[in-house]
Every structure is written in structure tokens, then in C-alpha cells.
Design a protein that fits this description.
about 280 residues, alpha/beta, Rossmann fold, 8 strands, about 25% strand, binds S-adenosylmethionine, transferase, Methyltransf_25, methyltransferase activity
Amino acid sequence: MATTTALRARNADFWARAAPGWIAHADHHDDWSRPLGAPALDRLSIGPRERVLDAGCGCGGTTADLARAVGAAGYAVGVDLSEEMVAAARRRHPGVEFVAGDLETMKVVRGAPFDAAYSCMALMLPADPVAVLTTVMNSLHPGGRLAATVFREQSTVPWLPAAVLGAAAHVGALPPLPVGDEPGPFALADPARTRKALTAAGFDTIAIEPRDVVLETPDDPDAVTSWLIGIGPAGAAYREAPPEAQAAARSGAARLLSRFRTPGVGYRLPTGIWLITAECA
Ligand SMILES: C[S@@+](CC[C@H](N)C(=O)[O-])C[C@H]1O[C@@H](n2cnc3c(N)ncnc32)[C@H](O)[C@@H]1O
């Protein structure tokens, strides 16, 4: 098992290399991936004048939605490890506040205390989930609420391995696959581990509920496969590959994703997530 320091460096390197793919696909990612965060946003039901934090905000689409919800008298801030993604978020959403930094080592987010914290598909990625949750906890008011989503086990997210496997044979080396509890898309698939991390960080009123959502896209195999490859573990290798290898990677992924496609209608990508809610003690 790699050390926390090594895993932290691996995570930082992964997101530095992944950032251009996320930035290139940011607009349709916001649109097509919305169901991944929607249960947490619904649960938080953010209103005017609230102060809210978006932990692992990526290119900032949801932070901008939160900024609209809190209005001029409230405050929304997105935090992300990737400086490039934060720079893109600032370009995409002028006037919205973003902070580049590592939630594992930040201790408290600038602008604290917050009434609420939101996170979509980010809490499973850092080397030490307790450290990230402690930063979030330190940044909330007593009684402040957290709502977050993470993937359930891999079998409930069948499109993710399909995109990686379809592309992998046609591009260069992929980053190391996570072993055991190492950070990665499925590192918080076990709700017992998540509950333990939340408790260790000091949260209470913890609930972890399964949700089945479906990502819907237009019937555009080239756009959908380049999005799914581009934001996934094969994204950096795909970007560095020559055009003919990229085309082969897209058609490899399209073949494995065809079971989710209705020609003339689009893709429906079934996804199992956990909706995690908790309160700051
Ligand atoms: C899968 S993306 C999700 C982005 C966004 N929430 C969304 O739903 O589109 C995960 C994000 O978490 C960020 N991240 C990973 N580890 C982090 C850390 N230790 N501190 C802050 N952000 C982190 C990554 O840079 C990435 O933008």
C-alpha cells in the first residue's frame, strides 16, 4: 500500500494531467452529468443569503448555480486542487469566487464559516478522506449541513470501465489503477468507510442513501465517447495520442458503450451513487 504522501502526490499529478480534458468538455459535462450532483443539491435546498462551499468544484458549473441560488447577499465559493480547472472556472463564471488548493491540507476554506457544503464526485479522490472532511467540518457553522455524492460499487457504474477499456488498447500508458482503499472513483463505495471517516472528522446526523440516476446525452457517439474518455483515467494518454489512435479509442469505447445507446435517441448511462448527508456537530 502506498503512503499517504505518495497517494497525495499521485492525486495531484492525476488532476494536473486530467485538467485539460475536463476543461475541453466543461460545458457538456455540466449538462450531461447534472444527475450526479442533483440529489445533494435538492437535499441542501440552498436559499438566498446562505454561505455555501463547493468542495472539489472542477470547472465551476455547480458553484455558479449555487452563487445564483444564494444571490447577492449570500456567498458561494468553489475549491479545487487543480489550478488549471480553477482558472477555467474563473473564465467561465466571472464574478463567482474560486480557490485553488488542496482540501486535505487547507485546514479551513477561505470565507468560513459556511452554512452548507456541497460536493459531487470528489470526496473519494483525495489520499485521506478524513483530512478533507475535517477541512469541510472546520469550515462549517455548528449545525451547518453537508450533502455530497460519490459512486457506489463499480458494477453500478458500467459505463466508466467501458470507456476506459475501449480506449486503453489504442493509447499510451494509463495512470496506476487504485488498489484496495486507495483514492479513485470507487474508494468510498463502502458506506461503512464513509461513515467512519465522517465520524472521525466530527460530523453527526450522518445518512448514506443509495440513489440510481441516469445520465442522458444526445445521440452523438463521437462527442459522448470523447467526453467519457477525456474526463476519465485514459484522458491524458488519449490527448497525447495521434489522431488515428484517438479515433480508434473512440470507436473502441463506442462499441462497449453501444448497449447504452438508442440510435436516433441518445445514450442513457445508469449510475449508482451514494447520497451522503451529515451535520457539523
Ligand atoms: C470527478 S471531479 C468532479 C468535479 C465536479 N464536482 C463535478 O461534479 O463536475 C473531482 C474534482 O475533485 C478535485 N479534487 C481531487 N482531490 C482534491 C483535493 N484534495 N482538494 C481539492 N480538490 C480535489 C479534482 O481536481 C476534480 O476537479
